[in-house]
Design a protein that fits this description.
Layout (H helix, E strand, L loop, with lengths): L5 E5 L12 H11 L3 E5 L4 E4 L2 E11 L7 E3 L3 E4 L5 E4 L7 H11 L6 E3 L2 H5 L3 H4 L10 E4 L2 H11 L2 E5 L9 E3 L6 H11 L5 E5 L8 E7 L2 E9 L14 E3 L5 H16 L4 E7 L2 E6 L6 H6 L5 H13 L1
Parallel strand pairs: 1-2, 1-7, 7-8
Antiparallel strand pairs: 2-4, 3-4, 4-5, 4-6, 9-12, 10-11, 10-12, 13-14, 13-16, 14-15, 16-17
Catalytic activity: gamma-L-glutamyl-L-cysteine + glycine + ATP = glutathione + ADP + phosphate + H(+)
GO molecular function, one term: glutathione synthase activity
Family: Belongs to the prokaryotic GSH synthase family.
């Protein structure tokens, strides 16, 4: 068995995280409890030299204490091939910097196991990968053509319009059929997201009851939370005021997970979060899914432990 000894976290700097809801922090706590040696670095510190991949890393210790949650050691340039596992955990945007980091990490994977598989992360943007399961989704349009988007809204009535490569609820708008700001909204999108298509989806009234985040480990559902939007907002993301609550995984949601599970395993996606509103899946999150700490808070599974069990099995 190839024992795990050294684990690196490629992430946004640990000083800026909110440990109460940060899944990367939960992963680090569990890894430390298993005796792994932890290292920390930000994506801008990745370097390729003559085909080898290095990063300026610090040894990392973590504590579940607000305001005193980490200690970093002295920074050192380390060959990533010396790591057993690299957790690819920086938040989007899914821009060229993000894409380049996946190309570099691909050079060390799978000898150094990168979670999730960097090539498939690059080829599976959350709002595009999900369209491979169109029958499980609400009506969806990907376009930047104002005529196409207007036609879609006329057909659907209320729609949700959002950037194709956004995250955390940023730039998400609910537009009704009689919205007089619609033309201005499209103009704003055109200026903000030059050259990129947008995604429009039929508005699902069931979102008022919540947008469920379901976590899957190696293609199997292991926990869920429901995220309820604020009264004055259409977005349920906790970053923008959504309220988390306990929930169960329904028969329909188990059916959705069973459908997508083989594709997740085929792509090497060990840890994934899907978003479900009512009976419909809206996203498959493979970059840096969240929800681990919230699931545990409401008495659910220890998802971080299950994830490291799966990683250890891959390394066996």
């Amino acid at each position: 068995m190839a024992k795990i000894r050294k684990v690196a976290f490629q992430m946004d700097h640990i000083s800026g995280i909110n440990i109460a809801g940060d899944s990367t922090f939960a992963m680090a706590l569990e890894a430390q409890s298993r005796g792994y040696e932890l290292f920390h670095y930000t994506p801008d510190r990745l370097t390729m030299r003559d085909g080898k991949i290095f990063a300026a890393m610090e040894p990392l210790q973590v504590r579940d204490i607000k305001g005193d949650h980490f200690t970093l050691g002295e920074r050192e340039r380390i060959d990533l091939s010396m790591m057993d596992v690299v957790q690819l955990r920086q938040d989007p945007p899914f821009d060229m910097g993000y894409i380049t980091s996946t190309h570099l990490l691909e050079r060390v994977h799978p000898k150094t196991l990168v979670v999730n598989d960097p090539a498939w992360v690059r080829n599976s943007p959350e709002k595009i990968f999900v369209t491979e399961f169109a029958d499980l989704m609400p009506a969806t349009l990907i376009s930047r053509d104002p005529t196409e988007i207007a036609r879609f809204r006329d057909e659907m009535g209320d729609i949700i319009l959002k950037p194709l490569y956004g995250n955390g609820g940023a730039g998400v708008f609910h537009s009704a059929r009689d919205d007089r700001n619609f033309t201005s909204l499209l103009e704003m999108f055109g200026q903000m997201y030059r050259g990129e298509p947008y995604i429009a989806q039929a508005y699902l009234p069931a979102v008022r009851k919540g947008d469920k985040r379901i976590l899957l480990v190696d293609g199997e559902p292991v926990g869920a939370i429901n995220r309820v939007p604020a009264e004055t907002d259409s977005r349920s993301n906790m970053h923008v005021g959504g309220r988390a609550e306990a929930t169960e995984i329904t028969a329909r949601e188990k059916e959705i997970c069973a459908r997508i599970g083989p594709a997740l395993r085929e792509r090497g996606f060990i840890f994934v979060g899907i978003d479900v509103i009512g009976d419909y899946m809206t996203e498959i999150n493979v970059t840096s899914p969240t929800g681990i700490r919230e699931v545990r808070k409401f008495g659910g599974a220890d998802v971080a432990s299950l994830m490291w069990d799966a990683i250890e099995a891959k390394r066996a």
